[in-house]
Amino acid sequence: MRCSWQAEGFEELRPLLFSIAYRILGSVSEAEDAVQETWLRYQATPTRPASAKAFLSAVVTRISIDVLRSARVRREEYAGPWFPEPLLSDPYEDPERSAELADSVSMAALLLLERLSPLERAVFVLREVFGFGFPEIASAVERSEAACRQLAVRARRHMEAGRPRFEADRREREELAGRFFDAFREGDVNGLRELLAADIHMVGDSGGKAPRFAGRITGPGDVVRALAWSVSRFTRIGCAVEPHRVNGQPGAILRDRDGKVLSIWVLEILNGRIQTIRTVNNPDKLGHVGTVADAWAALHEATRTRLHAD
């Protein structure tokens, strides 16, 4: 039977638990499963812990580490580039650290975390993102405090060596992204080109299950041509671009005429220019956003429509 103290305490901490699990796993669905398993274990706890936050954070961390270890084998065999599942809204909020939290959940940061071992990743997330003390971290990962400090130092060194940089002013990022998506909808090649950095690259994650709107394309000229190719086809069949923050950064959801999700795009912006465009097209990574479109069918229809128009 569900105890009221368990339910109340758990629901209050659910946003934090999900945010910990997502940063460790890079997967919305796996993070939700980890939180649900944490709840089941909490229900089975016969006595009330001294600190629900410490107890639940430790449980979700251990579960996430175990899931990540098995997930890494699948990611090594993944078809093409692997990106985290897009996160439209982080449920955990801390007004004093909102910018740090947004940057820590960016795709660039999560991809950097992929270079760490599961233990290093968990320690880094608990310590650097959520500010847990080493006694709590040691309990969560079942290592000594000294070992956790060493793990934290190694993780921090790796992260700082490749730490992603973003435009500091959120309003400026959103304004530039708005101009980009306006130009994309209108097929404004010159408007697109002036927003791209000289070393721009565009890369897509399809997992072999959907068209890749971009494999890995570099340089403003080739990226603009790829964007023009995309817009010339998909606008003809009623596809829409819905600007939305994705993983704390400017982005958009691309939908077909029925509102189904085709792809999610994320822009990384620095020094007033777009540095990277990431597209997530694998339908397995889009289901939590809404009903997923058949991207292959949409591409075929768009190609037929373009041929008839020509």
Description:
This protein is an alpha+beta fold and about 300 residues long. The chain has two domains: about 5-160, Butyryl-CoA Dehydrogenase, subunit A, domain 3 (Up-down Bundle), CATH 1.20.140; about 170-310, Nuclear Transport Factor 2, Chain: A. Helices cover about 55% and strands about 15% of the residues. The protein is built from twelve helices and six strands. The chain has a six-stranded mixed β-sheet with strand order 2-1-6-5-4-3, covered by helices on one side. The relative contact order is 0.11. The mean pLDDT is about 90.
Structural class, judged by helices and strands? Answer: alpha+beta
As for the number of domains, it is: 2
Termini separation comes to 67 Å
**What's the gyration radius in Å?**
21 Å
Outline: globular
Query: Strand sequence of the main sheet, in spatial order?
Result: 2-1-6-5-4-3
The percent range for helix content is 40-55%
Arithmetic mean pLDDT = 90
CATH class of the largest domain: Mainly Alpha
Q: How are the secondary structure elements laid out?
A:
Blueprint: H1 4-25, H2 28-43, H3 52-76, H4 98-104, H5 107-113, H6 118-129, H7 134-141, H8 145-162, H9 170-186, H10 189-193, E1 196-205, E2 216-218, H11 220-234, E3 240-246, E4 249-255, E5 261-270, E6 273-280, H12 295-309
Parallel strand pairs: 1-6
Antiparallel strand pairs: 1-2, 3-4, 4-5, 5-6
